[in-house]
Amino acid sequence: MSRRKDGVFFPRLPNAPAPLTVRIVRPVLFSDVDPMGIVWFGRYPLFLECGGGTLSNRTGLGYESALAAKLFTPIARMEIDYVQPLRLGEDITVAASMIWTGSAKIAIEYTLSGPDGSVRAYAATTQLFVDAETSQPLWVVPPHIEAFNEKWRSGGFACLQNG
Questions:
Q1: CATH code that applies to domain 20-157
Q2: How much is the pTM?
Q3: In angstroms, rounded to a whole number, what is the distance separating the alpha carbons of residues 15 and 102?
């Protein structure tokens, strides 16, 4: 197994719009760590949820919009590359970047950094669109995602595209 040194999990498509990125800062709490004072590996998905949820809400793709479109958006895949431990009391920065796919999924890459800016972990999640009534995955991009993609392509999220 090889570690990604640059945090790139998804291919960049030619002529795709720039990723949409948000950053949040969160302290490492006592409930996040193991007896050694380092973040327990099972807590990292919570950090990803904080970053990815903020990104989804800022772009209008939060849970409420999915439910209004009668969709669920479950995580179908999650990968985490642990680089250095996070420790109790540190403020961590979670950078979440949505990567253009042009398909019926949401691809987000994450970089978790310590207070000194050092990379502590890289991660990625893939979410699918699932019909809320039938629980069947959608293989065609839903209409509200087509509208979202058009806004993204036309620069409607410029405030989130400067990294």
A1: 3.10.129.10
A2: 0.93
A3: 11
